[in-house]
């Protein structure tokens, strides 16, 4: 079996599995998985910039929120229907990530982390500042009647699951295609040694800019869908915590692996959910597990898998 | 309030912020500079310092100054010891890998927060200042009778706030002296400059790392003890100092102690003074953007020499 | 976290089981079977702020809930069935809050959800409760329910909302403290509600707001904003939430020194904080809104006395076992009263199981007068079935000798405002 075949079978298999699962899962886990797929999409976006390009951003909540509010505000105040509102969310994400890239890519390393962090914080405060429209931290509800996309009621569990699956599937495949295309290989090369890539005649700035816009737009898509599927937009999604989450998920799952973001998101979600069933001190368990993982699975879960079993994993 | 007195007041407030920030950030700067790792749990060491201060002050009773002085000694030592233990059991084993350190210290953050919540509780608890008198400050103007002094409404500070600024200055000088005048400072600087070379010269790099991690955490705890009579000890209080000191370290330029201190002053004062001219949230937005833009146009930080 | 109120449930269950066994022996077989089926406990999902910024409130909401459930079970439960509290931590976060509501409905098979305080968690969770048709009883004092933003399955029958609280204060403030007001409030939705509703209400009294000072969230030092307070301010209106509240109030005192204007605050600024903490001496002679007087008053009702003892709170509003552990007395009665509303609603609807959830909603919507009683120790209330919001008395206290002394009680009518929604027109 060729490597390409194996890769297609593995990733296609995951998507088929996720599709089939919706018919067998009990209601609670059915709902959870829909949520996890949207959040994993956010992590997939993050992974393109962090895992493959090597740029550690602490400001992705800004892009997630751009999508969420681009979608939510146009529905709430301009009476948009979901389809154009989602489009506005995506465009908002692309514009914001493009603008921030132009500024932040002048820097690298830790300075890049801080610049993205500061702009995301400013974005968060801006949402509060325009509380008249955004209702600030409290946020606003996107009513059931406003969540009907082409006649499909997205508040229905099956429809929601299917929408989340579709979003995740598309973004996963984009990510898979991207990292196997020459463009993605160049990104990895930039991560490993930017000077050398530049010397070879590549325009590294343009590559990084494109990576950041793709990454930001996928994050925005996740934000827009999250608001639409679960009926709520609020400023807490723009807070620094939501910038750190995708970093954590990607590191746990395995940075620079296509499946890592999903594995990490799934793992973290159930780590909190299950340990909170055992004890009130579930954060303690979560903390200990995180520390243990860094000790025993240094490259994240998928990363370990690649190191020990499937060396061909993209 | 008129503009002049207002700016004076805002600068005073900004200086207190700057003093505490400088202390917290100097600890992080040491860790970041020497060990090259981002310690997400740094804010939790700060919080632990404040919480221990409350316990000590509560246990001592008597005049508030007794408990406060005891806390000033005990909190940094205890927190430093915890940090050294964390370094030896966790960070050393993951070989100070930057990415794994982020995850491990996030884990540490969860553990410390949850343990504090379970033992200390969710309330914000005050620690009484050893002394705290309100001082009304004078202002001058050219009036009918020429140059005259008066006491504008609201223009005041407290003796304790002034003492915090003084104490921070003393501690910072101490740290500077340690780094430049002592053998251990020399070892730290050597390790910072080139780890491999230091190893080759027989410097016990691992022990230096543990020490640096402990001192960094201890300084954060010290800052917290100083601030806790102004703010209160609360189990979530670590988030802000973490972000701010992280920012200060980068703005100041990696590994530059004077840079860190000046950046703290810059951020503290700009936060105070910008708030004079704009509505509060807008002022925060502008102050945040200002910090971002400084780095955009000077990525190595204000006083950094190397590219980061 | 699944937390049974263990000893109560066990003791209460034994009692009920003994009674049921005695009764069952005399019943035909099919009835015995039905009896056994319906003897499953009624499960109330308790969305608790155990971690995050709401933790201080969450702890006391938990204690009040435990006390109320213990009492309800000792008196025979609801429709003869014991009540079981299923507590889940939402981390005071709207995302986790929505997940917890899903968990109640689809994992724990709770009959209802209950107990949320922070507005953003309510608003993030309510859409899911509505979609899952889980009756969702919030104890939040937000205006979100009555504003029409939420849905037919979300109700607030145990605590009044910020709009009615704020507007009921304006007459007293204008008459007794002054007409030129400056407001200091947090720059998020809760603060904006104060800004909008109080400004309108004081203008209706012939007063005016000179300046609105909105403080950014997570701010830890406040003095730099106080010079924006105009010199001719007669009344300073302050409300703040979060861990930095004590700093805020202390710095206000240090700023004004000996020459402060009249001050009127919402006790939210000092919930879970001792009024005699060091640095708060200057609060002497200032006024506070209280949802329920924290310190036992001279004219304390027997219901307040009973409720205080049941929850374990002393006459100064602190835990009887630890006098430094101050309660959130002005809010937590809402949990107690809401549980009694759920009980009354389930009894009126003849509630048997999740199939009767719609009937429960209709039964609560049909409620109106709630007289002061052990079930309603805070005072009499009027429930509006259309807006799903309850209305009740508000209290104004003055700090005298380190004690909050009640100086004014508003009428319930003072808190009314025109309906903004009619949830009963929505399908169930």
Name its key features.
heterotrimer; A: 314 residues; mainly alpha; two-stranded antiparallel ribbon; two-stranded antiparallel sheet; 14 helices; 4 strands; 76% helix; globular; B: 308 residues; ABC transporter involved in vitamin B12 uptake, BtuC; 11 helices
Please provide a written account of the structure:
The complex is a heterotrimer of chains A (314), B (308) and C (428). Chain A has 314 residues and is mostly helical. Chain A is built from 14 helices and four strands. Chain A has a domain of 216 residues. Chain A has a two-stranded antiparallel sheet. In chain A, strands 2-3 form a two-stranded antiparallel ribbon. In chain A, a hairpin with a 2-residue loop joins strand 2 and strand 3. The radius of gyration of chain A is 19 Å and the shape is globular. The two termini of chain A are 16 Å apart. The mean pLDDT of chain A is 86. Chain B is mainly alpha-helical and 308 residues long. Chain B has a two-stranded antiparallel ribbon. In chain B, strands 2-3 form a two-stranded antiparallel sheet. Chain B starts with a helix and ends in an 11-residue tail after the last helix. The model of chain B has no long low-confidence stretch (mean pLDDT 84). Chain C folds into two domains: 218 residues, 3-Layer(aba) Sandwich (Rossmann fold); 151 residues, Rossmann fold. Chain C has a seven-stranded mixed sheet, covered by helices on one side. A five-stranded parallel sheet of chain C has the order 2-1-3-4-5, with helices on both faces. A three-stranded antiparallel sheet of chain C has the order 11-12-13, with no helix packed on it. In chain C, strand 6, helix 7 and strand 7 form a beta-alpha-beta unit. The longest helix of chain C is centred in the last third of the chain and has 21 residues. Chains in contact: A-B, A-C, B-C. Chains B and C meet through helix 1, helix 4, strand 4, helix 10 and helix 11 of B and helix 3, strand 7 and helix 8 of C.
In short:
The complex is a heterotrimer of chains A (314), B (308) and C (428). Chain A has 314 residues and is mostly helical.
